[in-house]
């Protein structure tokens, strides 16, 4: 990737929400990687790009933030998803995530998260 880092940010691309117990925290990386691989495959992203992305982005950092923009976006996503979950019955998490990643957000210049991710993926890999 030539010194570039490609980050998956919750406010950019939703790959699922998992509620885990404290003792399951050690499995978080595997859970996220599996969910991400399945989701990217469902979006018809080439397997070579998925593999290259997964190979170069192995580090996952879980962190807190007090950035108001990030928190506002995350709260907006949760409000939307809570309302949608009450009205729609998605067949599975992948279908829910595909729907969610079509929502346009201000922090990514009013583009669809999946489109922003695909552009970044092609540009950096």
Describe this structure in words.
With 125 residues, this protein is an all-alpha fold. It has one domain (22-124). The chain is 52% helix and 0% strand. The protein contains 5 helices and no strands. Helix 1 (28-42) packs antiparallel against helix 2 (47-56). The radius of gyration is 15 Å and the shape is globular.
How would the blueprint of this fold be written?
Blueprint: H1 28-42, H2 47-56, H3 68-87, H4 93-100, H5 113-124
Helix pairs in contact: 1-2
Question: Quick recap of the structure?
Answer:
The chain has 125 residues and is mostly helical.
Q: Which strand-content bin applies to the residues?
A: under 5%
Order of helices and strands: HHHHH
Overall tally of domains: 1
Query: If helices are DSSP runs of H or I spanning 4 or more residues, what is the number of helices?
Result: 5
Distance between the termini: 6 Å
Radius of gyration: 15 Å
Average pLDDT rating: 77
Low-confidence runs of at least 5 consecutive residues: 1-12
Outline: globular
Structural class per helix/strand content? mainly alpha
Tally of strands: 0
Organism: Paenibacillus rigui
Domain DUF6933: 20-115
Pfam families: DUF6933
Protein name: DUF6933 domain-containing protein
